[in-house]
Amino acid sequence: MKIILFTLGTAGDVNPVLALGKYLKQKEYSVTVIANSMHESKTTRLGLSFVSGEGDRKLEEFSETPEFWHPTKSVKTLRDYLLSTLDAGYQALEKEYVAGETILVGSTLGFTSGLFSEKYNIPMTGLHLSPCCIPSPYNRFSFPKIIDSIPGAKGPTYKAMNWYYDSLYRHEIESFRRKIGLAKMNQNFYQQWLHIPEKTICLWPQWFGKGEKDWPKEVHFTGFLDYDGVEKKTEEIPSLKILKKEPHILFTPGSAVQHAKHLFGQAVQACRQFKNPVAFVTPYKEQLPSELPSNVKHMDFVPFKEAFPLCSVVVHHGGVGTSARALTAGVPQLVIPMAHDQFDNAYRLEAMGVAKVLLPRQIHHKSLRKNLQHLLESSPVKEKCQHYAKQFDSQESVLEKTVDLILS
Known about the structure:
By secondary structure, this protein is an alpha/beta fold. It has two domains: 2-224 and 394-407, Glycogen Phosphorylase B (Rossmann fold); 234-389, Rossmann fold, CATH 3.40.50.2000. The chain is 41% helix and 14% strand. Strands 3-2-1-4-5-6-7 form a seven-stranded parallel beta sheet, with helices on both faces.
């Protein structure tokens, strides 16, 4: 049996799907990953077949811009990228899918798989990586705090958000539907159509985000999937040797972020006040100040699974993969969300008592220092971190449960 995994996005979006593909390969299934081209090499290193699901415009063209990581502008920038992939993704599916011999799995951003499924009346399993992927007026973390605090404001705000997202996508989606011979949608694209697969698998534990009462009935919770995209032995990674010497405060704005110069600049000023060693993790060194204090080291990359347990605090953007790694490690988090699902994830972590949240406009060396000091010294935060670290099922269990759902 052949299994197609259709996914698009940055490492945080694609790596969990690769973890699934790796496990399926070990179980001797034939696996084809359709994704954006930046993930080709690590996909083929796992022995999985790779097919590009994007056209001439690559994700890097979009993710390298500051708009892609802006709280509001990111919505349109991501839209522009996803719509540019429709033709290439659909053609890849037509080439790879063999009727009666293939199982189709599509992630949230890989919604071209949903169009293919509808066109040929093919069963499909949907994968969601974070709770905000399924919109609901009952999800209080999806709203700015000021909206959540105003009685009766969430309903109208939710309707406006759905209308806005639908208006962003509908014209191009309808045009593509006509092109492939599908009728006009009679549903809201964002609120309803995205969530029509026969089965939807939520790749997080239910304690991180329970199902809301208006969610689709066929929703199953499995757990977070771990994969850093690295097959090296940990002893071959120099940065881990540095981290093992003493607990670090680790800053990581995200694997694809190239516009965190302000954050790193303010972080340098904040960390001058600490004796703790500090690690700035980014492949884009040009974001960093030209001179770093003696207690601050730059690292191009660290595998989070091994690195986070060696840290005293992790400062990150709120991506669900990074959040999950920090939860597993039982380490306090300072979350600075920038775009996409990061705000929802950040507010969940804060409500759990394992994190503090700073918005981008609040980035200042004084606020960084104050929050870092709190996280370093707070016993209640550390107790909560240890509590949630013990709630995780084994990766083998999560993978087995996920695969059983896909195959059932």
